[in-house]
Design goal:
The complex is a heterodimer of chains A (about 170) and B (about 425).
Chain A (H helix, E strand, L loop, with lengths): L5 E6 L6 H4 L37 E4 L11 H7 L5 E4 L4 H9 L3 E4 L2 H11 L5 E5 L4 E6 L2 E6 L4 H9 L2 H8 L1
Parallel strand pairs in A: 1-2, 2-3, 3-4
Antiparallel strand pairs in A: 1-5, 5-6, 6-7
Chain B lengths: L4 H9 E6 L2 E5 L2 E5 L3 H10 L11 E4 L9 H16 L5 E2 L7 H7 L8 E4 L13 E4 L2 H10 L1 E5 L2 E8 L8 H12 L7 E6 L1 H4 L3 H9 L8 E4 L3 H11 L6 H8 L12 E6 L6 E3 L7 E3 L10 E4 L1 H4 L2 H11 L9 E4 L4 H9 L2 H8 L1 E3 L20 E4 L14 E4 L2 H10 L14
Parallel strand pairs in B: 3-4, 3-6, 4-5, 6-7, 9-10, 9-12, 10-11, 15-16, 15-18, 16-17, 18-19
Antiparallel strand pairs in B: 1-2, 2-8, 13-14
Helix pairs in contact in B: 2-3, 2-5, 6-8, 9-10, 12-14, 12-15
Classes of the chains: A alpha/beta (about 170), B alpha/beta (about 425).
């Protein structure tokens, strides 16, 4: 199973799309690793610098409809090869969300109020997330500020993460 | 309780409910192209699972960058080609026979009412025009589709959109879907299937229904879907005539995939298109939409007519009717890309290609190329394109470029004017 704890990157916008996560011109790559340097390359967001802001981050927190647009699994892969295995948002585009779990990663939805609270209290600060996968609890920490947030995962999503993804699960079960 | 179209299709295809509101369904078609499939193939090989569930239910095409533009795209094509050969996939389309997947596969009769289909391409939702459930998926879902012929989906809620009213001349299916997306937003149908109905949809050709369903994903929809009817039967007849004694029998069989009167919908929207004007997008999201009339100050550097949204023969007829005996503005680069070889040939025979060329358009081979900024019409920074495509995301047709999504009529009129402009000309016959 992958690791789901680390430093948090806050992306304060809704509808961050797959072309912003990984531009289409890199779809000609046939290895995941080659996508690495281009993560969020076309994202224009105040305070965000492609290549720099993602350095030493393992978690993304964003707003609603994260990952909308293309079906390209290159989007979750671009996160994966940069060591980012968790995206937390108000909501996700269907395909992006499924692609995350299919690759054994986490795309977790939290309530809008909780997301707003996270942005209010932690955005702009050096924030760390500890994930207790077994008990479904996120703990965010910045300096002496601590917030504990329970999250929900379906049995199937949990099974995918534990199996390391959908290919192994499906080949074993169908 | 009554069921929606997609509920009926799921009930016929479900093989498992593994929890978490998920349904594992059997697939009738697993479609593949050279951008998202090679990584799936390589991964299957690496896992020691280089198998296919059924070579006849897998369809493959090289369409996104064709002919290959460099070594990387040549390698992607080769991986798909070699794989199709070693697994005896007969429905594989390469140079000379290839076209934009979502125009090519329906044209070949591969998509039928009641079918389930996936592809590693978000615009797979186009196939819902046939009363099929078709969804774009990621590479891992595609891998499992290739290997096992199954895919998992959450319970698909249905958003019903009834479209009524009188379409004004010069207003097309593209304007209708842009108005729908503007109304419900880019997130308005996430995790939902959009069931399009009402008199306007009932009167639409299959090509227009494909334009409509094609952009369901731009509102977040899993699939757009239209109830199959006599128009569906007419379109498919050459492929199904041996399966049914007559068209009435086919229509009766397909009626099974219409929604029940008491079907439950997540929401029902009544969308009146009377008074609708030609529309264009103005920002980087497909729900940022205005009348073209309010955007005529916007100069264009390039006009692109093509793609899985609007690269079919009816679209080329509409554009050619606007362009006939006219030339495009000197500063505009016009590019038309018939979506399949059949459409290309038809456009040649009907004299449409001649009209495009006389007007000053470049005619390219069928390919997705320019729509996603991969080849055949990439924009430079600061350039503006009026395009009949489906996405205006930042950087979509090239870094720093701006895309305005419009109908083929508006694209053609804009090419002539040199700026965004609604067309004041319509084809002599309905198109």
């Amino acid at each position: 199973m992958k690791t789901f704890s680390g430093n948090v990157l806050f992306l304060d916008r809704s509808d961050i799309n797959t072309d912003e996560i990984i531009p289409a011109k890199y779809l000609t790559e046939i290895t995941k690793k080659a996508l690495g340097p281009h993560l969020l390359e076309d994202l224009c967001l105040e305070g965000f610098t492609p290549g720099k802001s993602t350095r030493d981050k393992q978690v993304v927190v964003s707003r609603s409809n994260f990952g909308c647009g293309s079906s390209r699994e290159h989007a979750p892969w671009a996160f994966e090869v940069n060591g980012i295995h968790v995206v937390i948002a108000e909501s996700f585009a269907r395909i992006f969300r499924q692609n995350m779990f299919n690759g054994g990663m986490l795309a977790v939805e939290l309530l809008p109020d909780t997301i707003a609270d996270l942005f209010n209290r932690f955005a702009g600060r050096r924030t760390r997330l500890e994930t207790d996968f077994a008990r479904s609890i996120f703990t965010f920490t910045a300096d002496d500020e601590v917030l504990t947030v329970p999250f929900e995962l379906s049995d199937f999503d949990r099974a995918l993460v534990e199996a390391g993804g959908w290919v192994e699960y499906a080949d074993a079960n169908y | 309780m009554g069921r929606t179209i997609v509920e009926k299709i799921f009930d016929r295809h479900r093989i498992d409910t593994p929890g978490g509101d998920m349904h594992v369904i059997r697939l009738d078609v697993v479609a593949c192209h050279e951008i998202t499939t090679p990584i799936a193939i390589n991964d299957l090989v690496a896992r020691g699972k280089d198998r296919v569930f059924d070579p006849d239910r897998i369809k493959a095409v090289i369409d996104h960058v064709t002919p290959a533009k460099d070594s990387k795209t040549a390698t992607q094509g080769k991986i798909l080609r070699d794989w199709a050969r070693r697994h005896n996939i007969r429905d594989f389309f390469d140079i000379g026979h290839n076209g934009v997947c979502h125009a090519l596969f329906p044209e070949k009769g591969f998509i039928r009412p009641g079918y389930t289909a996936i592809m590693g391409d978000s615009h797979t939702c186009t196939y819902g025009a046939f009363g099929a459930f078709a969804a774009g998926v990621g590479t891992t879902d595609l891998e499992v589709g290739i290997l096992k012929g199954v895919c998992a989906f959450r319970t698909p809620e249905t958003l019903r959109i009834d479209i009524a009213g009188d379409l004004a001349p010069g207003v097309y299916a593209k304007d209708v879907i842009l108005s729908v997306i503007a109304r419900i937003g880019v997130n308005g149908a996430t995790n939902k299937v959009i069931e399009f109905g009402g008199p306007v949809v009932a009167a639409m050709s299959m090509e227009e229904r494909m334009t409509l369903c094609n952009m369901a994903i731009e509102a977040g929809g899993t699939c757009g879907i239209c109830a199959p009817d006599a128009i569906t039967v007419d379109y498919l007849w050459e492929f199904i005539q041996n399966d049914y004694p007559d068209k009435a029998a086919a229509r009766a069989a397909f009626a099974e995939y219409g929604p029940d009167n008491d079907a439950h919908y997540a929401d029902v929207i009544h969308h009146d298109v009377s008074g609708l004007e030609p529309l264009t997008t103005f920002g980087h999201k497909p729900d940022q939409v205005k009348p073209v009339r309010e955007m005529t100050h916007q100069k264009v550097d390039q006009v692109y007519i093509g793609s899985c949204t609007n690269g079919r023969i009816e679209d080329l007829r509409v554009a050619a009717a606007v362009l006939k005996e006219r030339t495009i503005a000197p500063a505009v680069r016009g590019i038309v890309s018939p979506a399949t070889p059949k459409i290309y040939r038809q456009a040649l025979q009907e004299g449409l290609i001649e009209i495009f060329m006389r007007a000053g358009f470049c005619v390219t081979n069928p390919t997705c190329g320019a729509c996603l900024g991969m080849s055949n019409g990439v924009l430079a920074e600061g350039e503006v394109c009026a395009a009949t495509t489906n996405r205006n995301f930042n950087g979509r047709m090239g870094i720093g470029g701006m895309v305005h999504l419009v109908s083929p009529a508006t694209a053609a009129a804009s090419a002539i004017a040199g700026h965004l402009a609604p067309s004041n000309r319509q084809p002599e016959q309905g198109a």
